[in-house]
Amino acid sequence: MNEKNIVIVGAGFGGVFAAKTLSKKLRSHKEYNIILVDKHSYFTYMTELHEVASQRVKPKHVQEDLEHLFYQDKNVKLLTTEVTNINKDKKTISTTQGDIPYEKLVLAVGGQSNDFGTPGVKEHGFELWSMEESLKIRNHVENIIGQGAAELDPDKREQMLTIAVVGSGFTGAELMGEFIEQRKVLAQTYKLDESEIKLVLLEASPSILNMLKDRKLADKAFKYMEDNGVDIRLNSRVTGVDENGVFFQDGSTLPTKSLIWTAGVKAKSFISNWGFKYGRGGRIEADDYMRATKEDGTPEKDIYVAGDTLSYVDEKTGPIPQTVEGAESAARAASANILADFGLGKAKTFSEAVKYHGFAVSIGSHYTVASLMGLNFSGFIASIAKHGINLFFYSQIRSAYSIFHYMLDEFFRTEDGRNPFKGSISRLGNVLWSTPLRLFLGIFWILVALGNAGDLNNFFWQSGLASFIEIVTGAGILLGLFTWPLGLLSILLTIVSGATHSFELTHWFVMLSSLAIMNGSGRGFGLDFYVVPLLQKIFGGFWYGKAKSTYNELEK
Questions:
Q1: Which of 201, 143, 216 is nearest to 171 (CA)?
Q2: Rounded Cα distance, 118 and 240, in Å
Q3: Closest C-alpha among 473, 471, 484 to residue 531
Q4: Contact 333/349 with Cβ under 8 angstroms?
Q5: How far is CA 264 from the centre of its chain?
Q6: Alpha carbons 416 and 410: distance in angstroms, whole number
């Protein structure tokens, strides 16, 4: 059998989607090998890097091992290496592991941040277009805020406690939303007032989120950030960055040690000498069938393009956006045309393959603006929709493992209330799974008080006062209000009843259930989620005052 290699360079959204699509269609055709090449052994969920940078999730949350993704796809071979060149005449790619022949080639190597040549960005700023860069931001922000909290010089302190993000596109807005929530955590950790940590969003144009057609959504995002203390500076063109801060076109400056550049995206620079026709941002231009174009503008016969490597303008939908659905649509078209080349399907233009359902821009974990299926909405429902989009991608590449762990990481393993439910369902913040037991116990005590618990009433003495105490206990436990003291009261009531009558299995069950719900169950869909932190703040401040990172009580 003469084996034929379909080589896919890049394990991003476009590359993984193409590999999964081709693997499924070619499963019964043993003569075809799909070789997925990437310099990393994992797929990075690029659109969630801002969550890693702001310590909302652990780095592994956005990393999916390629072995896990493709273990059941036996016709996909993985190769961790770097591609250095393409020989179109010999139909081979050169890598650090040697040359690989190809029958068909898909280039989906992704993109990188575009600083437009602004002096000092690479030397003194940070970018957010890779796992490595997100980890640098993650570590830097934690360290610089800690240093700033201990700095006594007011000017240096303000500089260290200022975080600036350049660019108000999807990435910049989402990163700033995460910083809004992280600021609260950092302020508590380093005994700072939240207002001391200044968040500044810099945008060269007169508006934010300029890719949104519905300006009402952009206005809502603007208001949300502004209401949460973000200093949004429009018409602020950055002309340079140094170790002390940012320089603007009008001659003004912003002192900061934390400048994060998210203002543009371009293709990976190493593809620039591969002999194609390049468009905006150094991307490879393609024809309607996603075939890469030669320098003279004619299409390559066996080379296709997808993802942020691609430059293409569709007559109906316009330029392909640097989004997940843009990468998927290009990969879908490329895969269909590769199969058509093999006589295994029908050729498709991009217009025939494109599927845009919409978008969702999360401004932190609690607020999102979205436009999906022709509907525009914001807030909690939009946040859930954003997670639905991510889960939909994993369902398309048939990864139940990824779906399971995504749900755990985004909903049940979150700290500091950083999920759409503000932490109420996080098993790190409360004992979520004891909530059903709490509800049962609350109903139980109410039924006992009302005399509707059947034979169980024989275990508890009945009087007007007892019934009142029982119904208060049951109602409080049911609502999740003051669950700890009411759980203790439930135990005492049961002990008194057992002493009055005799201890039986029911008494032990009620006591142990009461003990179980005392471990934070009232914060799982209960009023304690709101009431307890408020009381801690009020009475803690009254009795202990407020801790600060620096003191100067000599002025009193």
A1: 201
A2: 6
A3: 484
A4: yes
A5: 19
A6: 12
Other CB atoms within 10 A of residue 457 CB: 15
According to DSSP, the β-strands at 104-107 and 111-113 are unpaired
Share of the chain above pLDDT 70, in %: 94
Distance CA 540, CA 520 (A): 19
Mean pLDDT (whole number) for 16-34: 94
**Residue 482 vs residues 393, 436, 479, 493: alpha-carbon distances, Å:** 42, 17, 9, 16
**Strands 258-261, 126-127: parallel, antiparallel or unpaired by DSSP?**
parallel
Strands 92-95 and 98-101: antiparallel
Read off the pLDDT of residues 52-100 as tens digits, 9 standing for 90 and up: 999 999 999 999 889 888 988 999 999 999 999 999 999 999 999 999 9
Are the C-beta atoms of residues 143 and 542 closer than 8 Å to each other? no
107 close to 290: Cβ distance less than 8 angstroms: no
Residue written as token pair 């299409």: 299
CA 229 to chain centre: 22
DSSP class per residue in 391-407:
HHHHHHTT-HHHHHHHH
Return the residue matching tokens 């080639």. Answer: 105
268: left (phi over 0), alpha (psi -120 to 50) or beta: beta
DSSP state of 252: -
Contacts of 504 (CB under 8 A, 6+ apart): 459, 498
Q: How would you classify the pairing of strands 63-65 and 42-44?
A: antiparallel
Chain segment 530-544, per-residue pLDDT in tens = 898 888 788 877 765
Distance CA 82, CA 102 (A): 16
- Give me the phi and psi of 7, to 5 degrees please: -100, 125
Question: The tokens of 93 are what?
Answer: 């790619």
Q: How far is CA 377 from CA 181, 221, 228, in A?
A: 22, 11, 20
The two tokens of residue 530 are 């709101």
In angstroms, the CA 322 to CA 46 distance is 11
Structure tokens at 292: 């890469």
pLDDT digits (tens, 9 = 90+) for 183-218: 999 999 999 999 999 999 999 999 999 988 889 999
| Amino acid in the structure at residue 21 | T
Q: CA-to-CA distance for 164 and 258, rounded, in angstroms?
A: 6
- In degrees rounded to 5, what are phi and psi of residue 5? -95, 130
Contact 164, 200 (CB under 8 A): yes
* Number of other residues whose CB lies within 10 A of the CB of residue 116: 12
Q: Cα–Cα distance between 411 and 16 in angstroms, integer? A: 25
Cβ contact 82:39 at 8 Å:
yes
Phi, psi for 114 (deg, rounded to 5)? -115, 110
Q: Are 444 and 457 in contact (CB under 8 A)?
A: no
Question: Tokens 């801790």 identify what position?
Answer: 547
Helix (H) or strand (E) holding 137, with range, is helix 131-150
Report pLDDT for 539: 81
